[in-house]
Amino acid sequence: MKPDTVPPSTQVLRWLPAVTWAAVLFWASSRPTSLIPFIIPIPHADKGIHFTEFAVLSYLICWAQEPSERALGRIIWAAVLATSVYGALDEFHQSFTPDRTPEVADWAADTLGAVAAGFLWLKRRPGRQISLRGVNDNHVP
Prior knowledge:
The chain has helices at residues 8-29, 45-65, 72-94, 104-124, and strands at 128-131, 134-137.
């Protein structure tokens, strides 16, 4: 769908899930560890949580950009970059939260989740075929 055929209100609404999820992540990282209702007693289990939380954010950012005329690669790069930067800022933010510590490994898990979600979003798009030479658009509007 061309961007000029999508009403501005619809374009704004498409960003609402990503912005809401980012706010939930900010709220969650503002909570001291002692207030988290459950702690998984498996070493490094938090990396899987980081991966999943930021994969959701990246997927929502990709979805928000769908009606644009941007190339698919640029949509994914924008989502991964935005999610990775948000993850880095989230880790920095945690340095001010009691009982929380920033970790590069958490940021790496955030970024890997973003990349995985970008590829998942690309794979799930109807009419798209992924080949070694790139993405072919077989979708007929």
